[in-house]
What we know:
Blueprint: H1 7-10, E1 16-21, H2 27-42, E2 46-51, E3 68-70, H3 75-84, E4 87-91, H4 102-108, E5 112-117, E6 128-131, H5 138-149, H6 158-171, H7 182-193, H8 198-206, H9 211-224, E7 225-228, E8 233-238, H10 240-245, H11 256-261, E9 268-274, E10 279-285, H12 291-298, E11 302-303, E12 307-312, H13 316-327, H14 331-334
Parallel strand pairs: 1-2, 1-4, 2-3, 4-5, 5-6, 8-9
Antiparallel strand pairs: 7-8, 9-10, 10-12, 11-12
Helix pairs in contact: 2-5, 2-6, 5-6, 6-7, 6-8
Amino acid sequence: MLAIAALKDLLSEPKQIVITTHHKPDGDAMGSSLGLFNYLVQKGHHVRLITPSDYPIFLHWLPNNLEVIVYPEKPEESKEYIANADFIFCLDFNALARIYEMGELVRQSKAKKVMIDHHLEPEDFDDYRHWSINACATAQLVYDFIVTKMGEGHLINKDVATCLYTGIMTDSGSFRFPSTTAEVHHIVADLISRGAENWRIHQLIYDNFSESRLKFLGYCLLNKLEVFPEYKTAIISVSKQELEQFNIITGDTEGLVNYALSINGIRLAALIVERKNEVKLSLRSTGDFPANEICKKYFQGGGHRNAAGGNSEKALAEVISQFKTILSEYKNLLIL
Length: 336
């Protein structure tokens, strides 16, 4: 593993660079990636941002979003960029399995790999690493990379600031999670001073529901929410048929699990969604309850202590039943 500071000299001349992030990118994934993209372009690098899948429409307003290449839409072009890259920046993920088919392409590429991430237990596929589990968002680490490691805070223009603010805001739960430290507030204050319009960003992310998405939210809260007070747990489950009924698209289920967690006294919330070929789980918890442990142990996943995800190839009903059975194992931690 090489010191991240060594990149300063290597990036002083134009390079062929690919940036990528995890499957089904969220606000932090796209905010950090486009923030880094806008920074590197200013330095004269030839930069391609390739996502392994589509991502929510409510993120398409981000600066230079039109430059994003979605791998399934342009696989051959993407493969060529990955094969010919000098550097590949891997943002907001720590294992190549998180980028699906692109994972082996990145592994086999002769490019130097740079990981910028804040998730637990990183896989050792990278040559350079800027990593901290204490960061509230990968966008915070990208800010630190630009300002501290590269010493180029002057290149954080309005576009970079807007993207990084978006990443920090979304992954910190609009600055309400415990990871939102005084340092985070200093960083976002600096981003606002550099042109990030905090009020506008919030509106574009959170006040941008389609009619079908709002009706879907109401349907889930009325019909799909189960509460287990004896375990201080709440579950929302959704079938493929229900997704189709409400014309749900990528991003429409984002944040749904937080409604379950917002119930007074609830310490663990789960959103269990049946997708095309698998069942996806999103877990949220409060305090020191290890949501990531459940995902890692039972559902081929992981993440942060209070925000984690996993998947299963079992039928939806089986996954729901399995999750409910697991609760008894964690009862002592849940009822603290």
